[in-house]
Fold:
Amino acid sequence: MTFSEGQQHLVDPEASLRAELTGAIATAQIDIANAIAELARSGADSAALTNQNQALQHLQRTVGSANLGSLLALRGEVAAAASSATNLANQAISSAASAAAAQANLSPAERARTSIEALNRDLFENRMLDPYLRFASPEDEEAYRKRERERKEEIDRAMALGTPEGLRRANELLRDQLRDAGAHGADRSPDYAGMMQRSDEAFADLQPPHQATEQAAPQSEATSVHSVRPQPSDDGLGGILATLKAAGVTTPAMQASDAGHGISTALAQARDTSSAIRQG
Structure:
């Protein structure tokens, strides 16, 4: 029991500690979300960050169901995970900035080739969109995989030409593959819109000089609906704030965010909520 100005207030140590740990995890998730957005804009691979975010989500669920004894035992694990995630996010942003600076020194044709080669790897080697694919039947998936193999073979032949025409053809096929994947659920991936944007930019870089000033790169179906920045989801910043509220972390700014205002202040105060555990 604690007393303040003659009034009795009941303090629940379990709820207080749960809110503290949830706040620390939420802060790290915000850092990861911001870093993923930066990588999407630069076209860099965000798989490591996505994996880190999934680990944080698992830890968040553990904290949500733990009793007081377990929460006390989790303090060190949460502090380490939050610190590691923030460091990874900072490193990713720094690497993306360095890559962007290197890209700026390339000619348009070199920049286009670099982007197309990266898209080719992401789609067919790293298979970044595969976890989001959904098929109506085994036959549907078989037909999709057949189209995928045929496009890959044609892309390799086009790239081997080493000409602007070959690069344009490869980029067209990559866009076809992206649209096909998007129609089967891959547009739910946080990387999808950024990949379509990179294809658009490669298209613009490959335009002959006399056409580049007259014709802008056509806006893809994905980027006409989605911005380059990944859209918020249940696991995004809105979900983080909801988790904080469910854990009993509320501030005037967070209440204001319910009406569509104050989210930046709410996130800043979420960071303040978790600062104690980091300092500890």
